[in-house]
Write a structure and sequence with these properties.
Shape: globular
Helix content: 40-55%
Strand content: 5-15%
CATH architecture of one domain: 3-Layer(aba) Sandwich
Radius of gyration: 17 Å
CATH topology of one domain: Glutaredoxin
Number of strands: 4
CATH superfamily of one domain: Glutaredoxin
Strand order of the largest sheet: 2-1-3-4
Largest sheet: 4 strands, mixed
Structural class: alpha+beta
Number of helices: 9
Length: 224
Amino acid sequence: MTSSIPKIIHYFDYKSPYAYLAQEEVFRLHVDTGQNVEWLPHTLDIPSFLGAAELDASGNDLIQTRNAHQWRRVKYSYMDCRREANRRGLTLRGPRKIFDSSVAHIGFLYAKQHGDFKNYHQLVFEQFWQRKLDIEDPTAIQSALQQSGIDANGFVKYLSRNGPDELRQIQQHAEASGVFGVPSYLIGDELFWGGEHIGHIRELSGLKPSGLELPGLKPPGLEQ
């Protein structure tokens, strides 16, 4: 069916486990609304609200800037997401540091411009959460593009020229629209944050529930 509402803009970040878990339902929404969803990357500045951390092989924090409250929130969020991932048969291994996902997000923009981005999108999410992909490494992202069937010969040039500016413009527009976390969904001027709003978005689109909605699965809030 074709949705009668404005295009649904879906914001994601590859380093967000909640965004990862939302993708199956977003793809379903895209199909059910007649290709009416647009994916856009939103690079979270996690240290600004949850502190920075980097763990060694033994799990010791090498930076130690997080307070006890922040650690409780982070540990709960991974437990919450891992519980749902296990239910679905997905692998979700928490990263040992906070990655800057900008390179992978520029890779996503490149994939959108050079073919079907879906294979790249799914591969990056899956391999990152299996700790098999360094999303900060341009060579690794170029390889991910190639594995996804995208001609990656122009990626390095795009990464050093237009890519960062395009990502920055998307980020600025998202923030001007009120986006602060992922997964987020923008319908006209109305913003929804969190995967539990998928059911409401489907209703606004004139769709029945898909059966995949996850009431209560919510990213940790930014409030203290």
